[in-house]
Inverse folding.
């Protein structure tokens, strides 16, 4: 028996009961087959790509019916949380671009979605004697955190952005680690069956990570961008997809891939402002495009967008930093210095702000 | 037939032809006389030439004898010198033969020493070649490693840049 601090991810197809009722048995089986193949490809590739050994050593996962379970226990919780978030975003993206959903989209019907629940907590691993007797010595993983994560996942139907729900334990750890770059909605207190108290559940409202795209299996990367572009032009686009797509454009811009990519990104960004409820990240992306885009470089516009972000989130570190840089580039040293000091006031450890303030002090 | 009997028309023609024949006879006689005179002159000239030739021959013989005599007189001391030179040449040939034999005796061990040195040089050359080849392979391996390392650094740079962008959004 071994206790571990695990990050647990549960994912399943939303409205699968309804689908099972409306589709023929063969159609339903085809859909499940497509779902399971997609989950297998993404998760197996992801764990290998990020150096997990699998086989119960530092991770374990399984697919059953329309449900995926992933347990990560590498002894580096921040690493496990980041990977759980990446897996969640990647399975959603891969399922949206699957053959099944592309067919649904071509028929202008509502796409099938995946609901995800993630949480952290203690689990216990043990190999049951009966498993050894049947020659399958896989460990059983048990613990309250698992039950809770399953309940959290069931709450994903109530989400309206990513439909990736997190428990309080994961939320707290993300708040302590700004490197994870994830934002959550306000908590919803839900009462779950079998649990006598209200449990806070947080929905992921923004998860900006370039590795969602770059760590996708090569077989799934082909044509993925085009599928995403076509999906965001749909009548009922997925809000989270805008964030992933805009982040992909920014990576392409950074790598100098495509001449007019900034123009396309700006167009999608404007559209995203109407669709995405969590706007600070979109404002920041638009601001970034106006700083680094070759065709759309406009520092005043960039400043405007970062200001909009700060209007919604006055402590947004990214917006504060970018605003200070713009002021510096515009030659407004006093204002820039003030902006850097403001960042240090929020976060004394911010390395960029510390360096800049030191430079200003040396100049004096 | 007499002249009076000749037909009147051809009488003059025959007469003319007779005159021509007569004149030709005269000319021939004159030409023969002149030819004989010339031949006599030529014979006389030939005799003179023969006489002159004999004289020339005599003179030539005298001169040739004189030249031979003179040459003999002149070459007499040369002959002794030629003999002397021939003797010297023989001596030199003998000496060079002795020298050749002496050199052959000395060249034998020298050639063996050169062969030995050559062998040693070839062997060390092969060793150097092997070392150079090994060094080359090592350098190639290191170059590959450096290339891989550069790629890794580039990937790390991209990762850091992209991660920084994530935090700026």
């Amino acid at each position: 028996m071994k206790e571990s601090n695990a990050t647990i991810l549960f994912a399943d197809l939303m409205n699968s009961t309804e689908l099972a009722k409306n589709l023929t048995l063969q159609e339903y089986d085809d859909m499940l087959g497509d779902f399971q193949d997609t989950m297998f490809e993404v998760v197996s590739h992801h764990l290998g790509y990020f150096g997990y050994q699998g086989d119960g050593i530092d991770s374990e996962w399984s697919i059953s019916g329309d449900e995926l379970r992933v347990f990560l226990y590498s002894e580096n919780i921040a690493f496990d949380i980041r990977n759980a978030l990446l897996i969640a975003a990647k399975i959603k993206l891969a399922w949206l671009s699957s053959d099944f959903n592309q067919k649904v989209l071509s028929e202008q019907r509502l796409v099938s979605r995946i609901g995800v629940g993630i949480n952290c907590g203690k689990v216990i691993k043990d190999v049951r004697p009966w498993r050894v007797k049947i020659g399958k010595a896989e460990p059983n993983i048990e613990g309250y955190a698992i039950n809770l994560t399953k309940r959290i996942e069931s709450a994903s139907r109530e989400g309206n952005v990513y439909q990736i729900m997190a428990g309080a334990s994961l939320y707290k750890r993300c708040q302590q680690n700004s490197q994870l770059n994830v934002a959550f909605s306000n908590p919803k207190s839900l009462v779950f069956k079998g649990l006598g108290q209200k449990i806070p559940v947080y929905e992921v409202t923004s998860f900006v990570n370039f590795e969602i795209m770059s760590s996708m299996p090569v077989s799934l990367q082909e044509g993925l961008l085009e599928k995403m572009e076509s999906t965001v032009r749909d009548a009922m686009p997925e809000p989270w997809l805008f964030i992933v797509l805009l982040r992909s454009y920014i990576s392409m811009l950074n790598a100098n891939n495509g001449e007019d990519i900034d123009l396309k990104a700006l167009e999608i960004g404007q559209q995203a402002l109407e669709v995405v409820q969590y706007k600070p990240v979109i404002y920041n992306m638009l601001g970034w495009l106006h700083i680094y885009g070759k065709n759309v470089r406009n520092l005043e516009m960039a400043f405007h967008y970062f200001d909009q972000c700060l209007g919604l989130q006055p402590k947004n570190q990214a917006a504060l930093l970018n605003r200070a840089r713009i002021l510096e580039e515009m030659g407004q040293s006093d204002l820039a210095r003030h902006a850097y000091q403001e960042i240090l006031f929020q976060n004394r450890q911010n390395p960029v702000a510390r360096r800049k303030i030191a430079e200003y002090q040396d100049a004096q | 037939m007499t002249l009076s009997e000749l037909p009147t028309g051809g009488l003059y023609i025959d007469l003319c032809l007779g005159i021509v024949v007569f004149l030709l006879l005269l000319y021939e006689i004159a030409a023969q006389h002149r030819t004989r005179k010339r031949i006599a002159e030529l014979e006389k000239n030939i005799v003179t030439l023969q006489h002159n030739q004999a004289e020339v021959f005599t003179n030539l013989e005298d001169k040739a004898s004189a030249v031979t005599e003179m040459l003999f007189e002149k070459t007499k001391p040369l002959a002794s010198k030629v003999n002397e030179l021939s003797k010297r040449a023989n001596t030199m040939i003998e000496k060079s033969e002795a020298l050749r034999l002496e050199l052959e005796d000395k060249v034998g061990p020298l050639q063996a020493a050169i062969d030995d040195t050559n062998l040693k040089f070839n062997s060390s050359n092969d060793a150097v070649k092997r070392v150079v080849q090994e060094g080359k392979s090592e350098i190639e391996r290191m170059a590959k490693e450096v290339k891989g390392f550069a790629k890794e650094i580039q990937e790390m740079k991209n990762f850091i840049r992209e991660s920084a962008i994530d935090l700026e959004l």
